[in-house]
Amino acid sequence: MDRIVFQDVGPQVPQKTVQAAQPVAHRAVFTLAKMALEAGSLDSLYFLLVNDTRILVEFDNCFLVTHMGGHTNFVAATNQTSLNKKSEAYREITKLGRELKSLTKPIAPGTEQDILGIADPDFPDSAREALGHYLHFSGCNRLCYIPLMHEGEAMGHLVMEFFSEGMPDRIAFEHLIAISPVFGAALAQRWVLHKRPELATMTSTKPLEQKGLMSSKKARYALAAAVAAILLFLLLFVVPVTFSVGGEADIIPRDKHLAFCKMEGLIEKVFVKEGQEVKEGQVLASLDPKDLDYRIKNAQTQFDINTEEMVILRSSAEEDVSKLAESRLAELKRQSAWLELSYYQWQKQFIEIKAPVDGVVVTKDVESLIGKKFTPGEPFCEVVLPSELWVQVEVPEDRVCYVKPGQDMWVYLNNEPLKGYKLKVAEIAPASEAVERLGNIYRVKAPFPDAEAFAKVGLKGVGKIETRDANLWFIITTRILKHWNKLMLYF
């Protein structure tokens, strides 16, 4: 291969030293050629060209520019696993590579003065200026390039930088130039196989029978892929599936039965606790009677005084007629005291707070209410009927439109996740509620008449409502579009 050399070729090496070094250089050349031809991938070949070639030429930095496919690309550099395409160095090397594309002669390592002094008709001024500009940009002392030729065209260029003052070994550089066509051929082959992997079978050493077997396998794979595509189409668009909606479920009482406090007072005693079964009319708690007893006693005393006063005034009315009118006034006071006494005595029946129905107390820590002051009409505790249990499912707002009364609901309680209970939707809340973690939900309720003995209020699970038959494509696209619409709110 013709090459451009400079007058400064370094110090002369003794002949004996050259002869002693040649076997080592030859082994390195053969090793590099073997490694290049056996490179398993295009990236492995790139790595070899910019790193392993240092066993011949001790450069400081090396990069590879390729020209295949009609494009010039900076593809690899020494000790760099990936290239930063936004960096200034990437732009400068790519610009230099475009100028080197038409150059087929290598140049020996030279300084800026050497490059500017090249007098070769095949070396254009634009390339000379580009090399000089890159020398200034990189800050290296010497620069050289080697075209990787294949069938008369440069597949790429290896560009090497030297920052030391001395001249690199001339013999090693000539060995690298001699092996460059092998690199060019390997680069061309690997690039073609990278673009068209199926061409690798063209050079296979397997018998034709095995190739036919591979073709039949490919045909079977293609048939299997076609069958899978048809099945997928049928599954997505033809086969009906049940469109189920649902959410978290829990057991609730059908109605809330509250035991109210019917008069003002302090709780003195509590006779029940959470989870205890009670009968209708059973005393749950009692108020402190001291205040009411005091009022009754005071009203009784006032009634007795008014009675005595009325009797005395009537007995003295024969002597003084005016006493008769006073006795009438005392009688009215006596009647007022009697009404007040009767009211207090009637209130005494409400000292005890009683259960409104047969059921179970579900109020938490009800026994801790001792000493609390209640007002008339304030609920003391809640009693539920075990035989009137319902299931409540929290359905997201975007799916409640598919739910209607009478649809089947399957409930799986957490204590028996494999057993489902089939219920019927009875009620749908008219308005949504904001629930932490779940967002806006609608409460859908169904009676639970055949509840097991272990079923208790507050037991959690999962509820699924079978709304209608639909295809998988509808279900998938509906959910994707819902999230897409939410995402578009931010644009």
UniProtKB/TrEMBL annotation:
The keyword Nucleotide-binding does not apply. It is found in: Cell envelope. The chain crosses the membrane at residues 221-243. GO terms for cellular component: cell envelope. Pfam families: BSH_RND. Residues 262-367 form the Multidrug resistance protein MdtA-like barrel-sandwich hybrid domain. The keyword Transmembrane helix applies. Keywords: Coiled coil, Membrane, Transmembrane, Transmembrane helix. InterPro entries: MdtA-like_BSH, UPF0194_transport. Its main location: other. Signal peptide: none annotated. It comes from the Bacteria. PANTHER family: BLL5650 PROTEIN, EFFLUX SYSTEM COMPONENT YKNX-RELATED. This is Membrane-fusion protein. It comes from Desulfomonile tiedjei (strain ATCC 49306 / DSM 6799 / DCB-1).
